[in-house]
């Protein structure tokens, strides 16, 4: 039987991978995938503690986080398409010129 510590270590590793991707990448698609990794790490924590305590609340919140992630991807892809159409690349540092 796996203890919750294994799930917490896995979640921390996935979260740190996502955080590293956000801090070091300039490509908007990789930035979006890194945010998804961080949300999945939160889901692992929610479901691990839900299983540990025998409560379904963590799994319910996990479903809400997945719905939030789907909405975030839909809006993020739209923003990335506009960024690509205006600048012919998906570098997030070019978006500073889109201000008023």
From TrEMBL:
GO cellular component: NADH dehydrogenase complex
Keywords tagged on the record: Membrane, Oxidoreductase, Transmembrane, Transmembrane helix, Transport
Membrane-crossing residue ranges in chain numbering: 6-23, 30-54, 60-84
Its EC number(s): 1.6.5.-
Signal peptide limits: none
A molecular function (GO) term: oxidoreductase activity, acting on NAD(P)H
Membrane topology: Multi-pass membrane protein
Main EC class the enzyme belongs to: oxidoreductase
InterPro entries: NADH_UbQ_OxRdtase_chain4L/K, NUOK/Mnh_C1-like
Subcellular localization, as worded in the UniProt entry: Membrane
GO biological process: ATP synthesis coupled electron transport
Keyword set includes Transmembrane: yes
Family: Belongs to the complex I subunit 4L family.
Protein's name according to its UniProt entry: NADH dehydrogenase-like complex subunit K
Organism name: Haloquadratum walsbyi (strain DSM 16790 / HBSQ001)
Gene that encodes the chain: nuoK
């Amino acid at each position: 039987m796996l203890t919750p510590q294994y799930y917490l270590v896995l979640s921390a590793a996935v979260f740190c991978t996502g955080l590293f991707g956000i801090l070091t990448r300039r490509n908007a698609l990789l930035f979006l995938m890194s945010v998804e990794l961080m949300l999945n790490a939160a889901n692992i924590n929610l479901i691990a503690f839900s299983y540990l305590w025998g409560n379904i609340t963590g799994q319910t919140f996990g479903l809400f986080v997945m719905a939030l992630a789907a909405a975030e991807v839909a809006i993020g892809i739209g923003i990335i398409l506009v960024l690509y159409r205006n600048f012919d690349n998906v570098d997030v540092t070019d978006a500073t010129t889109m201000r008023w």
